[in-house]
């Protein structure tokens, strides 16, 4: 049965390499994500071709919020062509023993496939639940349904500035004239612990300023250790005061601007603008084809977060994904989970 044996080092490496190299792979389908979500159980299902090579994969996390029945989630999975419905169904079939082992009441997948109403109806026609653009509240999805993503395909460091509006280019250049600089810190660097402390301190400050929740410091430690190409970016002024900081993870030709924070001080210097520009240059040097600035939930020009991301990604950077394919095993628990 193609459920990954975590004691088989060769197969574990083979599985992770497949996810990292597949055109359908995503950092949330990497085994590194389990290191971050360490309070969830993890199982890994795959299909092989006639030569024993992996041709499809599904990394499944599960958690029992009631202590008995598991919500099973394959974030940004499956790792295969979602239009190949037969292969997706094969993966689901192979996952059934895992569902039984974990006592799952449903299995959710939310691939980064652009909205396609016809494809949604094909899956619904096969008896699957599919939460898509019929949902009035876009915040109900487990992962954001709308992201802002900058396409870097065939773009060099010298050309990237041309992607932005003249106003955005002026803002970027002004940050350098105002004496701001940006550095990149990795786990192996001597100043990593200091940088992580600063990141967390600014995260707390920003969360209080915006009235939002924040994760414990240990979560970010696991994130940085879970991915070999995770970096902290810091943008600081000529007095070495860090004004903005973020974590960027590069995985499978994509760089994710995954968490960020900024200081209450000197906000007029636009440190976050320089920081993202430097992260984009880093993404290009790293071979990334996309720079993913994450989810958006309001598309109005009056929304500051949307406009900040829009000014980097442009009108074509707004991507709407297809939604959530749910394989339901207990209708009553599933309805209760979704608040029906």
UniProtKB/TrEMBL annotation:
<dbReference type="GO" id="GO:0008360">
    <property type="term" value="P:regulation of cell shape"/>
</dbReference>
<dbReference type="Pfam" id="PF02388">
    <property type="entry name" value="FemAB"/>
</dbReference>
<keyword id="KW-0961">Cell wall biogenesis/degradation</keyword>
<keyword id="KW-0012">Acyltransferase</keyword>
<dbReference type="GO" id="GO:0016755">
    <property type="term" value="F:aminoacyltransferase activity"/>
</dbReference>
<keyword id="KW-0808">Transferase</keyword>
<dbReference type="InterPro" id="IPR050644">
    <property type="entry name" value="PG_Glycine_Bridge_Synth"/>
</dbReference>
<dbReference type="InterPro" id="IPR016181">
    <property type="entry name" value="Acyl_CoA_acyltransferase"/>
</dbReference>
<keyword id="KW-0133">Cell shape</keyword>
<comment type="similarity">
    <text>Belongs to the FemABX family.</text>
</comment>
<keyword id="KW-0573">Peptidoglycan synthesis</keyword>
<dbReference type="InterPro" id="IPR003447">
    <property type="entry name" value="FEMABX"/>
</dbReference>
<protein>
    <submittedName>
        <fullName>Lipid II:glycine glycyltransferase (Peptidoglycan interpeptide bridge formation enzyme)</fullName>
    </submittedName>
</protein>
<dbReference type="GO" id="GO:0071555">
    <property type="term" value="P:cell wall organization"/>
</dbReference>
<dbReference type="GO" id="GO:0009252">
    <property type="term" value="P:peptidoglycan biosynthetic process"/>
</dbReference>
């Amino acid at each position: 049965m193609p459920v990954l044996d975590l004691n088989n080092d060769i197969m574990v490496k083979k599985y992770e390499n497949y996810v990292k190299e597949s055109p359908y792979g995503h950092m949330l389908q990497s085994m590194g994500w389990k290191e971050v979500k360490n309070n969830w159980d993890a199982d890994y299902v795959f299909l092989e071709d006639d030569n024993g090579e992996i041709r499809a994969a599904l990394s499944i996390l599960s958690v029992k919020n009631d202590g008995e029945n598991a919500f099973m989630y394959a974030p940004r999975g499956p790792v295969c062509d979602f239009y190949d419905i037969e292969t997706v169904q094969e993966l689901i079939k192979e996952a059934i023993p895992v569902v039984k082992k974990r006592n799952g009441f449903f299995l959710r997948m939310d691939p980064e496939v652009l909205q396609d109403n016809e494809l949604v109806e094909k899956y619904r026609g096969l008896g699957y639940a599919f939460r898509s653009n019929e949902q009035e509240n876009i915040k109900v999805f487990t992962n954001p349904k709308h992201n802002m993503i900058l396409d870097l395909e065939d773009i060099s460091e010298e050309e990237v500035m041309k992607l932005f509006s003249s106003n955005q280019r002026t803002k970027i250049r002004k940050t350098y004239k105002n004496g701001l600089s940006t550095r990149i810190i990795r786990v192996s660097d001597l100043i990593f612990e200091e940088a992580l402390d600063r990141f967390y301190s600014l995260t707390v400050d920003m969360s209080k300023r915006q009235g939002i929740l924040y994760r414990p410091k240990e979560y970010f430690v696991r994130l940085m250790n879970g991915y070999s190409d995770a970096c902290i970016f810091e943008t600081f002024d000529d007095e070495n005061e860090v004004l903005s900081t973020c974590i960027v993870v590069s995985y499978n030709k994509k760089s994710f601007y995954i968490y960020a924070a900024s200081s209450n001080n000197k906000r007029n210097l636009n440190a976050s603008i320089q920081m993202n520009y430097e992260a984009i240059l880093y993404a290009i040097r790293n071979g990334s084809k996309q720079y993913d600035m994450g989810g958006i939930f309001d598309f109005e020009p009056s929304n500051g977060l949307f406009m900040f991301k829009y000014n980097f990604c442009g009108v074509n950077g707004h991507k709407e994904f297809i939604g959530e394919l749910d394989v339901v095993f207990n209708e009553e628990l599933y309805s209760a989970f979704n608040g029906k």
